Amino acid sequence: MNNVFVFLFLFVTLVDIGYGTQRILRSWLNHGCGTICKDKNLTTVYLRADGQNDTLHYLWDFDGNPSVLLALTSQSASMNISWEDFLLKKKNSITFTEEPVYTFGVVFNKIIEFNDTNDTALINIANLLNTNILHPMFFQWDRKTLIQNNEFVTLNMEGNSYNDSIMNISRDGSIKFSLMGFCSLDHSEVMPHMLHTENSTQVDIILDHLQTNKSFSNSRFAIELLVVGEGNPEIPMFINPKKSLDDEHTPGIFEVVEVRTPPYKSMDNYETQGAYLQWRPISYTTMSRNVINSTETMQYPPIKVSNHTSAVANSMLYCYYGDKVDTLLTQRIIVSLGTKGDGFYKRTYYSTWTFLIGYGTPPDEQFSYLVIMIISIGLGLPLIILLGVGLYLCIYKLPKRSGQAYLNQ
Ligand SMILES: *[C@@H]1O[C@H](CO)[C@@H](O)[C@H](O)[C@H]1NC(C)=O
Ligand SMILES: *[C@@H]1O[C@H](CO)[C@@H](O)[C@H](O)[C@H]1NC(C)=O
Ligand SMILES: *[C@@H]1O[C@H](CO)[C@@H](O)[C@H](O)[C@H]1NC(C)=O
Ligand SMILES: *[C@@H]1O[C@H](CO)[C@@H](O)[C@H](O)[C@H]1NC(C)=O
Ligand SMILES: *[C@@H]1O[C@H](CO)[C@@H](O)[C@H](O)[C@H]1NC(C)=O
Ligand SMILES: *[C@@H]1O[C@H](CO)[C@@H](O)[C@H](O)[C@H]1NC(C)=O
Ligand SMILES: *[C@@H]1O[C@H](CO)[C@@H](O)[C@H](O)[C@H]1NC(C)=O
Ligand SMILES: *[C@@H]1O[C@H](CO)[C@@H](O)[C@H](O)[C@H]1NC(C)=O
Ligand SMILES: *[C@@H]1O[C@H](CO)[C@@H](O)[C@H](O)[C@H]1NC(C)=O
Ligand SMILES: *[C@@H]1O[C@H](CO)[C@@H](O)[C@H](O)[C@H]1NC(C)=O
Ligand SMILES: *[C@@H]1O[C@H](CO)[C@@H](O)[C@H](O)[C@H]1NC(C)=O
């Protein structure tokens, strides 16, 4: 039996070494901006992930609606921000020294509150009387922590004091927004322990004691993302809920939802050369993230945007794409938090949603080594016993059986 363990451990170490693909992370806060950004308490993190042959650039920005830009270039390219124009949200204030091979952008566009009259947990955005829209740019965003090293980068932001100066609506409560960049394939430390690759960023959103509309007794929240990418604007992004193999890392959840950009160059490469969003359909309802205190998330078909330019105007994406966005894929993706009979948002006044933004192939959960080991032992032990018994029978019982053979005929 000891030999079996030695073999398994050897196998595990070998596979671990095989996890070669890594990127080296380097990151900067308000890179090259100086005092104007300090005075404005700006948070714009530039993250460079250098691989063997290429570089992924990320920009995480909290001026306007929070947004993430991802760009793939050769290793020699660099990003250049003209800060004065950038702060005025002028187009082309973000440039690269060479044309990126691929770019993708995500805006945290809206928080939609809805009165779930019949407890279906499904939002009807056409029903304006039953919905309220909050714009994340009206929160006051404060930087809580920024951890930077070569293996991961974590930025924790908190939005408070919501004040929509146009509609004159203010709300109590906060939104916690965490962004994480990684250098290799691994599971993230916080529940739901998403599996990420070296090409993905994790976004974690917490709606913490957000004040609900007094006239909505069955309040729930939904989050709307605006996605901009290369691709045919006429083809909707693919939403694909898949069953996953095991729930070892995310107890109780056997599903992953994937959203992928449609093909943009040829049908052959869209599986490896596009972008994706990925999440587990779970929302935790208390700070201690466990399956007992959780509910589900619901996804909807992507929605086309009629005026691309005005859709991105309040975010950093306009600073990069400018009017070019008109010819790009621009769609809205809505995810609502909660499921039938969970007592609505008011039960705990706490909801989370965690998702990945990535380039390339979305990671697939494999059976973990622990599970492989358990299966090996579970199958191996009975097999060894069976073999032993079989051998024993062959050697000691066969002569007798041949003597009785006629009885069985
Ligand atoms: C910047 O942050 C500091 C500390 O959080 C705060 O005192 C100051 O008022 C902020 N300034 C602006 C312009 O928001
Ligand atoms: C890097 O590029 C070279 C040649 O273009 C190729 O042979 C190699 O497989 C690439 N390596 C990776 C990790 O993509
Ligand atoms: C960055 O952009 C500014 C203004 O567009 C330009 O003057 C400067 O040369 C650029 N820097 C690099 C390194 O390209
Ligand atoms: C919200 O839903 C509840 C439950 O059905 C209902 O009593 C209430 O009138 C609704 N509020 C609005 C503004 O429609
Ligand atoms: C709730 O259910 C009632 C009765 O089935 C229906 O008339 C009403 O339109 C539903 N309300 C919503 C908001 O779906
Ligand atoms: C509550 O909802 C109603 C109806 O949609 C809306 O008129 C009102 O402004 C909302 N109040 C707040 C505080 O959002
Ligand atoms: C919201 O903003 C408006 C306009 O800037 C201001 O007059 C109002 O006092 C603010 N409300 C709160 C609650 O801060
Ligand atoms: C904004 O709303 C507050 C209370 O909600 C009210 O006291 C104030 O007069 C309003 N301001 C404007 C400009 O309508
Ligand atoms: C989680 O749910 C259980 C059962 O509903 C409850 O007893 C417990 O207090 C909850 N935990 C937290 C941290 O709220
Ligand atoms: C889109 O919106 C922008 C600004 O909001 C406007 O200037 C432009 O004319 C609009 N384009 C179309 C096609 O409606
Ligand atoms: C990560 O991106 C690189 C860059 O092109 C690509 O070659 C690689 O296959 C991607 N990795 C995954 C797991 O998608």
Automatic annotation (TrEMBL):
Record's keyword terms, sorted: Glycoprotein, Lysosome, Membrane, Signal, Transmembrane, Transmembrane helix
Topology within the bilayer: Single-pass type I membrane protein
Pfam families cross-referenced by the UniProt entry: NCU-G1
Recorded superkingdom: Eukaryota
Main location: membrane
Compartments, record wording: Lysosome membrane
Signal peptide: 1-20
Family designation: Belongs to the GLMP family.
Functional summary from the UniProt entry: Required to protect lysosomal transporter MFSD1 from lysosomal proteolysis and for MFSD1 lysosomal localization.
Protein name: Lysosomal protein NCU-G1
Organism from which the protein derives: Frieseomelitta varia
